Amino acid sequence: MQTMFDIDEVEALLRAAARRGHGLSYSEALQALGLHFTRPKMRALCKLLDAIDDRAAAAGEPELAVLVVRESDGLPGQGWWVNRPGAAPWTGPAAREHVRAVQQLAFDWWRER
């Protein structure tokens, strides 16, 4: 996959966030990578997040893409939900609870490593 990001760098950023027990907004993630927020950069980052989750699944690790969320509501964007059949609705209290539970899996996993 060709991308403007280094997959290992982004994965390390997400693992560090998980160890600290908190997520990042899309803007914060891009800023940590030395970039300003733009929609094209955010879309490219989202595609890479899917690849990072594929790597995590292959290694038996919890997903990390769930740690990158919108500033407005603290939820991942629509693309995160699309590949998760049976997940809670994309917005509202049920979505927030689902995201918190999935994030907690990453927090617990990476805090111990």
List the helices and strands and how they pair.
Blueprint lengths: L6 H14 L3 E2 H7 L6 H20 L9 E2 L8 H5 L9 H20 L2
Parallel strand pairs: 1-2
Structure description:
By secondary structure, this protein is mainly alpha-helical. It has one domain (7-111). Helix content is 58%, strand content 4%. It is built from five helices and two strands, in the order αβααβαα. Strands 1-2 form a two-stranded parallel ribbon. Helix 1 crosses helix 5 (92-111). The radius of gyration is 13 Å and the shape is globular. The chain starts with 6 loop residues before the first helix and ends with a helix. The mean pLDDT is 92.
For the termini, the CA-CA separation is 28 Å
Main sheet strand line-up: 1-2
- Give the radius of gyration: 13 Å
Largest sheet: 2 strands, parallel
Q: Regions with pLDDT < 50 over 5+ consecutive residues?
A: none
Q: Mean pLDDT across all residues, rounded? A: 92
> How many β-strands, per DSSP?
2
General shape:
globular
Structural class: mainly alpha
List the helices and strands in order: HEHHEHH
Give the % helix.
Answer: 55-70%
Kindly estimate the percentage of residues that lie in beta strands according to DSSP: under 5%
Number of structural domains? 1
Please report the number of helical segments: 5
